[in-house]
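User: Could you go from structure to sequence for me? I need the amino acid at each position, not a summary. Structure tokens:
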């Protein structure tokens, strides 16, 4: 842990240099406003006073990156692991863990959680949000249950969209390039009465990966159309009302293997090759803010969301698959059932030594002229509808110049409706009571404490807390010492699933019926405990007058009672028997060293130990990024980025991105043309071995007109 010791020494040196820094602040920073972090504790705070590490991705950085998706922006955040399950399914995890899902991180859009309640993941491809509408992203790197509830175990990504008052006029954009990239965007902002409005329409499309490791064509393209209407009303000098409506419609291709569900593969005919997912998302939110005085603010927010996922296809299997003996053996010993299937596929008899169930299955397979070998086809689905209603009251009170108190109460109702996953509907209600106290003990010391009490119908009650001491060397330079406790509630799929597939409209009756249940089933245990995280952090944040911002973090995190088994219907065995321990160091440097140049560097070192073997390969020990933004004059600009990780799912990742743009002034209009090139510097598949492109280079162009 040489890196940890060296960074600890650096923090010690910075504390010894406090008098020098104070002099520097007096000379150079008089009268300058401090930058603000908006979402870490729900209070507006200077970066040096935040009880944790926060990365800010502003609009200039979003534009310079050329990124088409939010997960690609997360490569700019130290410690973030960006993975691809397939071309239309991306994942983001802080410090690794499950690469296929993001179950331990909260994601907010203007304060609205987009973390799905039933299957507990974030559909990055299906968010009803265009990149062009994002104003800023704040990433709290660490547990933040005390501010945002039980799914903010490892971090919070808080996305803020553009204020309609600052979005007047028309903006049109088009992106086209290799791999089927074909994106478009249009927005119109205007004012009327006491309100400002912005209407945005956008679409996104690409073809995903080119082929698998077996040189088969990969079906993982995506297509989406999105709408967002945002408004803000200044009701009077003390009241503001904001509201928003958004919707998304699209489809994501699903790679299909004709016999992937078959008990005895290779014998059944091909099923339906269209296993694609059709997705529709809807949301509406309203927020009312009232300043009762210069020291007191009340805020009431309510929102409703609905996720609709339709995935229907026709599949085939042997009539043997619908017998009670096969279902019983699947529950008792899935590995033995796989062995039985292999022997039957090879035309061999099942020995009596395999046990009575296995022996009976073998006899049934061959008796009566092999009647149970007849293929049966039927309609099957993974359809699921999820809804969320959330109401929250927040009170912010300045008790004195040195003491601020934030408190709040919220109620949430989550519902999931799926015959395949839950055999109907499943509901959950969550009550939350939260608070945060910020106390400036003196000019240099800030003591902060926070707590969240949460009552969850499906998971029970929990109380989490955080305490932090910030030593402000100056208002712009601070050391922080943070201890946090956080929890993650088991989600509906982990704890309460009743996973059964029913085939309808059978090609031939089974037991005299036109429908039948498939042999593979899974039931959630129903008594899983919450995951518990204890986190310790020492850090430094500095905002220098010559444009330099530095954040350094040392961390030691422990996750106990971890739920880590794969969520597969044939291998479903969820429990609280796992753990994960992480420690390491991170740094982030953002330096605007001339009026035309900006340099950004990040680095993370993660040392880890875990009981879940798959997690060991899904955490990169070394990762980082480097970026240089430059304005050349005459409307020309460029940005160059490097992203790297040593091993993510045992695969190295290195990529260089170059963006060159030219801006033209056309009277009352502005036109920007840009060229974006991504060059992979490694020869690995992306996250999984089947995720392959024909070429390591990707090129696309964009044109944006504003008037």
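Assistant: Here is the amino acid at each position, in order:
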């Amino acid at each position: 842990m040489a890196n940890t010791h060296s960074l600890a020494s650096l923090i010690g040196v910075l504390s010894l240099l406090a008098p020098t820094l104070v002099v520097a602040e007096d000379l150079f920073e008089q009268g300058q406003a401090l930058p603000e972090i908006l979402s870490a504790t729900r209070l507006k705070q200077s970066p040096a006073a935040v009880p944790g590490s926060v990365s800010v991705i502003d609009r200039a950085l979003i534009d310079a990156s050329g990124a088409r998706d939010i997960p690609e922006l997360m490569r700019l955040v130290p410690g973030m692991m960006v993975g691809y399950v397939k071309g239309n399914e991306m994942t983001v995890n802080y410090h690794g863990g499950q690469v296929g899902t993001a179950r331990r991180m909260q994601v907010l859009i203007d304060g609205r959680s987009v973390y799905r309640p039933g299957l507990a993941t974030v559909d990055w491809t299906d968010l009803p949000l265009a990149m062009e509408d994002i104003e800023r992203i704040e990433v709290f790197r660490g547990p933040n249950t005390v501010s945002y509830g039980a799914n903010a175990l490892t971090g919070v990504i808080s996305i803020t969209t553009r204020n309609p008052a600052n979005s007047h006029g028309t903006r049109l954009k088009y992106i086209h390039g290799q791999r089927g990239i074909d994106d478009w965007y249009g927005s119109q902002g205007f004012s009327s009465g006491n309100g400002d409005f912005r209407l945005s329409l956008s679409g996104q499309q690409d073809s995903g990966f080119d082929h698998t490791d077996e040189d088969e064509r990969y079906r993982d393209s995506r297509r989406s159309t999105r709408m967002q209407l945002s408004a803000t009303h200044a009701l009077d000098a003390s009241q503001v009302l904001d509201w928003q409506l958004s919707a998304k419609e699209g489809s994501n291709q699903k790679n299909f293997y004709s016999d992937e569900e078959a008990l005895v593969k290779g014998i059944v005919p091909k099923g339906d090759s269209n296993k694609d997912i059709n997705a529709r998302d809807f949301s509406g939110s309203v927020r009312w803010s009232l300043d009762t005085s210069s020291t007191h603010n009340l805020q009431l927010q309510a929102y409703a969301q609905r996720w609709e996922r339709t995935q229907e296809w026709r599949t085939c299997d042997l009539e043997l698959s619908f017998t009670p003996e096969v279902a019983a053996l699947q529950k008792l010993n899935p590995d033995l059932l796989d062995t039985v299937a292999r022997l039957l596929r090879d035309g061999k008899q099942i020995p009596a030594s395999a046990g009575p169930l296995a022996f009976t299955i073998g006899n049934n397979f061959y008796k009566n002229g092999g009647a149970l070998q007849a293929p049966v086809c039927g309609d099957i689905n993974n359809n699921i509808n999820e809804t969320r209603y959330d109401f929250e009251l927040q009170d912010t009170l300045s008790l004195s110049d040195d003491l601020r108190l934030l408190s709040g109460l919220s109620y949430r109702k989550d519902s999931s409706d799926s015959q395949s996953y839950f055999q109907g509907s499943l509901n959950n209600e969550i009550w939350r009571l939260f608070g945060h106290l910020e106390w400036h003990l003196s000019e240099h010391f800030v003591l902060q404490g926070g707590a969240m009490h949460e009552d969850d119908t499906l998971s029970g009650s929990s109380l989490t807390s955080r305490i932090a001491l910030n030593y402000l060397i100056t208002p712009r330079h601070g050391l922080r010492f943070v201890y946090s406790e956080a929890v993650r509630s088991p989600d509906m799929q982990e704890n309460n699933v009743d996973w059964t597939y029913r085939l309808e409209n059978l090609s031939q009756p089974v037991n005299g019926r036109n429908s039948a249940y498939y042999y593979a089933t899974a039931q959630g245990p129903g008594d899983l405990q919450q995951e518990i995280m204890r986190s310790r952090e020492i850090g430094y944040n500095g905002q220098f007058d010559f444009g330099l911002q530095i954040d350094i973090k040392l961390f030691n995190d422990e996750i106990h009672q971890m739920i880590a088994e794969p969520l597969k219907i044939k291998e479903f065995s969820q429990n609280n028997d796992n753990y994960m321990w992480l420690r390491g160091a991170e740094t982030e440097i953002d330096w605007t060293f001339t009026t035309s140049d900006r340099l950004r560097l990040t680095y993370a070192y993660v040392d880890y130990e875990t009981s879940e073997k798959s997690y060991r390969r899904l955490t990169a020990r070394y990762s980082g990024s480097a970026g240089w933004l430059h304005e050349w004059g005459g409307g020309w600009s460029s940005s160059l980025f490097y992203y790297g990780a040593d091993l993510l799912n045992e695969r190295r990742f290195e990529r260089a991105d170059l963006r060159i743009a030219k801006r033209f002034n056309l009277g009352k209009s502005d036109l920007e043309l840009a060229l974006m090139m991504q060059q992979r510097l490694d020869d690995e598949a992306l996250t999984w071995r089947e995720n392959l492109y024909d070429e390591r280079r990707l090129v696309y162009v964009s044109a944006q007109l504003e008037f």
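One structural detail worth keeping in mind: The chain has one domain: 2-316+382-706.
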